[in-house]
Design brief:
Radius of gyration: 23 Å
Strand order of the largest sheet: 1-2-3
Largest sheet: 3 strands, antiparallel
Number of helices: 6
Distance between the termini: 75 Å
Strand content: 15-25%
Helix content: 40-55%
Length: 166
């Protein structure tokens, strides 16, 4: 690590502590040349392999941009999106893998988005799970109902009229 003051090519670690709930390490360093102290933060980097083959660093902002489109017109705040992006990054880090394909990230978003907003989840899932027909949407809605504790059976017009007491 180069000293930011005198550019000496070495430094000595004086203290190390975890930061960001264990997601990074904060190190206090001292330059043996000029004696000044400085702090560094180390994090493990996640990389993304795009469909074109280009490799780039993982970006929470890009997760938010992708999910924001699915959330248009829904009661989802920017704070909700930021928290979702953080949770996605944390779940990716927990896998122990450092490099992901874009589709893997899309799939990792799905469970977090399902908790946030079911309509946005369906919009997003239709892309990342390659829905081809209405049957795919119906199956996804049935799955959501089952996970919520419902029967999973579709509600027909006659069933809903009976339920409304008409």
């Amino acid at each position: 690590m180069h000293c930011p003051f005198c550019r000496h090519s070495d430094s000595r670690v004086i203290d190390s502590r975890t930061a960001d709930d264990g997601m990074s390490i904060r190190r206090r360093r001292q330059c043996p040349e000029c004696g000044k102290r400085f702090t560094t933060t180390e994090t493990a980097s996640l990389t993304v392999i795009k469909r074109s083959g280009v490799v780039e660093p993982f970006s929470r902002e890009k997760v938010m941009v992708g999910v924001r489109k699915a959330c248009q017109g829904r009661p989802v705040t920017e704070a909700d999106l930021a928290l979702l992006a953080q949770r996605v990054e944390e779940s990716l880090r927990l896998t122990g893998v450092a490099q992901f394909e874009t589709n893997d990230i899309g799939v990792a978003i799905l469970p977090h988005l399902r908790e946030l907003d079911e309509v946005a989840y369906l919009r997003f899932a239709s892309v990342y799970q390659s829905f081809d027909s209405l049957d795919d949407f119906e199956a996804a809605v049935r799955d959501l109902r089952v996970k919520r504790g419902g029967s999973g059976a579709p509600v027909s017009a006659s069933n809903s009229a009976a339920a409304d007491g008409e």
